[in-house]
Amino acid sequence: MKKTSIFVLVLALLLSLTACAGGNGGNSGGNQGGDDASDYVIRIYSNSNSPERTTWLINAAKEAGFEISIDDTSVISGDNVAVQAANENKDGDIIFGLNETRWGQLVNNQYENVRIMDWTPSWADKVGVYKYDGKAYGLVIQNVLMLYRTDEYGTNGEEIHLQHWGDIVDYAKEHNLVWYRQNKVGGTTNANINSSILYPYVDPSSPAGGVSVDGWKKLWEYCADGKFFVDDSQGIRPLIRGDVAIGTFYSSSLYGEIDAGDGVSDHPLKGTTEPENWQLCDFADGTYYIAEYLGIVDKEGRTEAQTEHVKAFAEWFGSAETQIAWSEEFDSYPCNEDAVKVLYPNGIPPIYQIENFALKEIPGTGANYATYVAAHSAEWTNILTNLGYYWNDDAKAPTTPDWDNLDWSTLTQKQGE
């Protein structure tokens, strides 16, 4: 997905930003915090920390005048682990990545030792709705997608238009189609799939974690009748091979996975931005987006000069020019509107034009769906775990729950409580 004349466009943007940069940041480099802070090592916690990302960020930050410390997935894996490590170690300067669920908890001070300090970058007005004003600001967005093959390994040309994500179960059964299902409770992509299926079943009065029992039934049916492949952690690969007709994946890296399909399948998906033998399932509800945010930790003992140095790094990392480079390298979609204009001069890709129901308000709650998910995420995890929703071996699948006689007050608690 390399864009035409990207270098020229980036250069023009850099010159423009340099010309208009004022005292509130821009790409000011590592000396903004003063000489006594220039050698300060900025400690970062993140779940967007694949080895490739950490290596890239360390090197790019060094070129910009910052020395950073960030663990890769061999040390920290997942958003919960990243936040818990920051909370336990008490040494963090920056947190980035995560999603609205976790950021809602951070900005509301739900962790004992992590406080997000007040901060407004110069590009705050460029990230649209993806911000917690005065606290944290969006870097990249991605969404969870459901795709299907339109060739003989799928629908044979028939399009899939449904109201809700969970409707795929009845549709697939009616048309004798196989779909991929995940095999574990944890993981951001898995959680987003669950949130997508449960969305139309939200019921704030329900003791079942604020979701109607019908919602949990539908999710169970999706898991029980879907197909899992032991050698695959993502639903795109069985779809590329033709082992399933319907699969799930996240928007970031989708096109790269499809482009690489020739190496893993005799009948891969064809056509990246213009699909030839695959398509997105069209759900009237839309899909669940997450935004990865950037915030500065109010770290005890950090000097004023060092704090300014940390702010300068955050200003640099979220800037359009850095996000252009980051997005080009890792096939992600930036929140920064200036970066989007450079990366996609011919228009926003279809996968990012889908309706975002994560930010839709839940009637009677005063909260959007992402906030609602955050409030109930622990209960949902406990329900999924206690009922045994996911399994690797179909021969050892648990029996279908006795839905009419479940004790939801117990199921919403952790095992052993």
Short description:
Helices cover 35% and strands 13% of the residues. It contains 14 helices and 13 strands. Mean pLDDT is 89; it is low at 1-12 and 14-34.
Fold and architecture overview:
Helix content is 35%, strand content 13%. The protein is α+β, with helices and mostly antiparallel strands and 417 residues long. It folds into two domains: 25-140 and 291-352, Periplasmic binding protein-like II (D-Maltodextrin-Binding Protein, domain 2), CATH 3.40.190; 142-288 and 354-411, Periplasmic binding protein-like II (D-Maltodextrin-Binding Protein, domain 2). Strands 1, 2, 3, 4, 5, 7, 8, 10 and 11 form a nine-stranded mixed beta sheet that branches. A two-stranded parallel ribbon has the order 6-9. A two-stranded antiparallel ribbon has the order 12-13. Strand 12 and strand 13 form a beta hairpin. It starts with 5 loop residues before the first helix and ends in a 6-residue tail after the last helix. Mean pLDDT is 89; it is low at 1-12 and 14-34.
